[in-house]
TrEMBL record, chain A:
GO terms for molecular function: 3-isopropylmalate dehydratase activity. The keyword Lyase applies. Its EC number is 4.2.1.33. Catalyzes the isomerization between 2-isopropylmalate and 3-isopropylmalate, via the formation of 2-isopropylmaleate. This is 3-isopropylmalate dehydratase.
Automatic annotation (TrEMBL), chain B:
One of its GO terms (biological process) is L-leucine biosynthetic process. [4Fe-4S] cluster binds at C347, C407, C410. Pathway: Amino-acid biosynthesis; L-leucine biosynthesis; L-leucine from 3-methyl-2-oxobutanoate: step 2/4. Heterodimer of LeuC and LeuD. Coiled coil: none annotated. SUPFAM superfamilies: Aconitase iron-sulfur domain. This is 3-isopropylmalate dehydratase large subunit. It catalyses: (2R,3S)-3-isopropylmalate = (2S)-2-isopropylmalate. The gene is leuC. PANTHER family: 3-ISOPROPYLMALATE DEHYDRATASE, HOMOACONITASE, MITOCHONDRIAL-RELATED. Keywords: 4Fe-4S, Amino-acid biosynthesis, Branched-chain amino acid biosynthesis, Iron, Iron-sulfur, Leucine biosynthesis, Lyase, Metal-binding. Residues 8-457 form the Aconitase/3-isopropylmalate dehydratase large subunit alpha/beta/alpha domain. It comes from Novosphingobium taihuense.
Length: 207, 467
């Protein structure tokens, strides 16, 4: 995972609830098995007409929001399908932070695994930020300080689980981390579970 | 000891390490793999030179991209190569695989239970949000992303945040043509598409005890549409009866020992939940979604909302947007809305009980002219049972197409897709924009309601089609 440093730039305003992962990354592109280059398909059916021409006026087709480092949006963004392609596509587009009153939970976790900072803020605060984003005011997301700064306004703090924050800041690979820190605990757990629920170990039964 | 809910018991039983701040490293007992969400997980394994920690705890199958019109050939070269990639991966990493042309192929959430892979008291993950389905067995089952899948493959464990708990209590007696699907849609309409975010939902009440495993699975399956990754039903005798004798289920003494353990998987009588929602089933009639989010659902007898009468600005905008996408008139009745397509199947409603409900409506009737209606069993095993019962004959004689198993028109990434403007009565789980094909319009409903829509040629009330 690429490490996260502070990002600054325009924020695309998507003042809409329930922007699901089918909207972010339509299912038909899921046949692609690569994770690179998916940004071209992000919000495909919102960005393009059936003939491939751009939908005029759509935020991602408007300067300076074509490759926005930040998206500000309504509740339940990223809901629906677990497809991590939605996050890879956002990352491919240049998005490094998503601000909303609530996020789809699987999407939220997928962001954390891919260098995108999920930021949950109260609805009133998000409503103000939507207006600022639409007005083209620059956003700064500072993960070190855990703040969002809109233009010259006072920095707004946000919550993030401390270990997730560290992993994002350092670009750590979660699997490496788990194997390095918990290999013994995992083995101990298995030894205990084998005694209580032996039927969960088909490898023992068949042997 | 403090009384605990079922969720809390399942969570506690799987904590490998407490990470503080509500997080823990959870042990993962079972992982189901499909062709769409797993390629990048295997790439990550290969890049790090890792092997699967316990290959026997995984089960792979192709369901999303596979065509359901025929078996043996795949026309779409991208789908063919995606499935070939899955097959290469399962060989390289020694993952148990339900062959494309074999008897156990089917949708991940249908074959897990059918093979006995899904067991009470386990943690089950899959790169698929509808993994909630397996919670019907008292398993802690949730959807994850491809990166998380890779962690599960290598480390058999996953960092998770402990959820709050929500009890959904079902009271009252339902009409015979009110199904789990109607209950799920009514619940989502009531609490909203993010009404259960951050919560593990447990379904309780006498109506649950009386429900078939298929209906419990439908309820848990749809829980993700209320924003929750976890739906649960405590295991009971019906659960054990379903599991007994399945290929991967424990046998003999081990089964008896397992049942004894599973008996402990109930919420303690005085356990408390963070939220409680009560639904009176006597008040629920067949439900139909009208919009582009599953909470935009109404009773069949209702009229569509009129944005002019909505005072909340954001709700008015959402309603206008949904009506426009769906091509519907404000205030018009839902009943009688013409449909061009009917889809009966999916991990929500592709089980034998669902096919029986559809066939009961279709028996001796004909699909309305101009309507394309397809029935896609959730698994090849389900298809076989349906054919043994003669359901395929009833349905094909009525004019439905009878398909092989797969996700089909639920997901618009195989041969079955809507074209712009098509309107589909669908037993699937999502009415999102473009979910069944770009510009396609989806109305979610039960299999009986979808069958009635096929016969009528428009959205209809299944209660009027009882023989």
């Amino acid at each position: 995972m690429t490490s996260f440093t502070t990002v600054t730039g325009p924020a695309a305003a998507m003042p809409e609830e329930n922007i699901d992962t089918d909207i972010i990354f339509p299912a038909r592109f899921l046949l692609l098995t690569a994770r690179e280059g998916l940004g071209a398909h992000a919000f495909h059916d919102r960005r393009y007409h059936a003939d491939g021409s751009e939908v005029a006026g759509y935020v991602l087709n408007t300067e300076p929001f074509r490759a926005p480092p930040v998206i500000v949006t309504g509740a339940n963004f990223g809901s629906g399908s677990s497809r991590e392609q939605a996050v890879w596509a956002l990352h491919g587009l240049g998005v490094r932070a998503v601000i909303a009153p609530a996020l789809g939970e699987i999407f939220h976790n997928n962001c954390l695994r891919n260098g995108i900072v999920p930021i949950i803020l109260p609805p009133e605060q998000v409503a103000d930020m939507l207006a600022s984003a639409a007005a083209g005011i620059s956003f700064t997301v500072n993960l070190e300080a855990q703040t969002v700064t809109v233009g010259n306004a006072a920095p707004v703090p946000f919550d993030i689980q401390p270990e997730r924050r560290l992993a994002l800041l350092n670009g750590w690979d979660e699997t490496d981390l788990v194997l390095a820190r918990f290999a013994d605990d995992i083995a101990t757990f298995e030894a205990g579970q084998r005694k209580i629920q032996p039927w969960l170990y088909p490898e023992d039964i068949e042997a | 000891m403090k009384p605990r809910t079922l969720y809390e018991k399942l969570w506690d039983a799987h904590v490998v390490a407490d990470l503080g701040a509500g997080e823990a490293l959870l042990y993962i007992d079972r992982h189901i793999v499909h062709e769409v969400s797993s390629p990048q997980s295997f790439v990550a394994m290969r890049a790090k030179g890792r092997a699967l920690r316990r290959p026997e705890t995984h089960l792979a199958v192709a369901d999303h991209a596979i065509p359901t019109r025929q078996r043996g050939t795949i026309d779409d070269p991208l789908a063919a190569s995606q499935i070939a990639e899955l097959e290469a991966n399962v060989r390289e990493f020694a993952v148990p695989y339900a062959e494309v042309n074999g008897p156990e192929q089917g949708i991940v959430h249908v074959i897990g239970p059918e093979t006995g892979f899904t067991l009470p008291g386990t943690t089950i993950v899959c790169g698929d949000s509808h993994t909630t389905t397996h919670g019907a067995f008292g398993a802690l089952a949730f959807g994850i992303g491809a990166s998380e899948q890779s962690t599960v493959m290598a480390a058999q464990s996953l960092r998770q945040t402990r959820a709050k708990t929500m009890k959904v209590e079902l009271v009252g007696t339902r009409h015979p043509l009110v199904f789990a699907k109607d209950i799920a849609l009514a619940l989502i309409a009531k609490i909203g598409a993010n009404g259960a975010v951050g919560h593990a939902v447990e379904y309780v009440g006498p109506a649950i005890s009386a429900m078939s495993m298929a209906e419990r699975m439908t309820l848990c399956n749809m829980t993700i549409e209320a924003g929750s990754r976890i739906g649960l039903v405590a295991p009971d005798e019906a659960t054990y009866a379903f599991i007994k004798g399945r290929r991967l289920a424990p046998k003999g003494d081990l089964f008896a020992q397992a049942c004894k353990y599973w008996d402990t998987l109930r919420s303690d009588p005085d356990a408390t939940y963070d939220k409680v929602v009560t639904l009176d089933l006597a008040e629920i009639v067949p439900q139909v979604s009208w919009g582009t989010s599953p909470n935009q659902t109404l009773p069949i007898s209702a009229s569509l909302p009129d944005p002019a009468e909505i005072t909340d600005h954001s709700e008015r905008r959402e309603t206008e947007k949904a009506l426009a996408y769906m091509g519907l008139e404000p205030g018009a009745p839902l009943l009688g809305t013409p449909v061009s397509h009917v889809f009966i199947g999916s991990c929500t409603n592709g089980r034998i009980e669902d096919l029986r409900a559809a066939a009961a409506i279709a028996l001796g009737r004909k699909v309305a002219p101009g309507v394309k209606a397809i029935v896609v069993p959730g698994s090849m095993a389900t298809r076989k049972v349906a054919e043994f019962e003669g359901l395929d004959r009833i349905l094909t004689e009525a004019g439905f197409e009878w398909r092989f198993a797969g996700c089909s028109m639920c997901v618009a990434m195989n041969d079955d897709r809507l074209s712009p403007g098509d309107r589909c009565a669908s037993t699937s789980n999502r009415n999102f924009e473009g979910r069944q094909g770009p510009g396609g319009r989806t109305h979610l409903m039960s299999p009986a309601m979808a069958a009635a829509a096929a016969i009528a040629g428009h959205i209809a009330d299944a209660r009027e089609y009882v023989a």
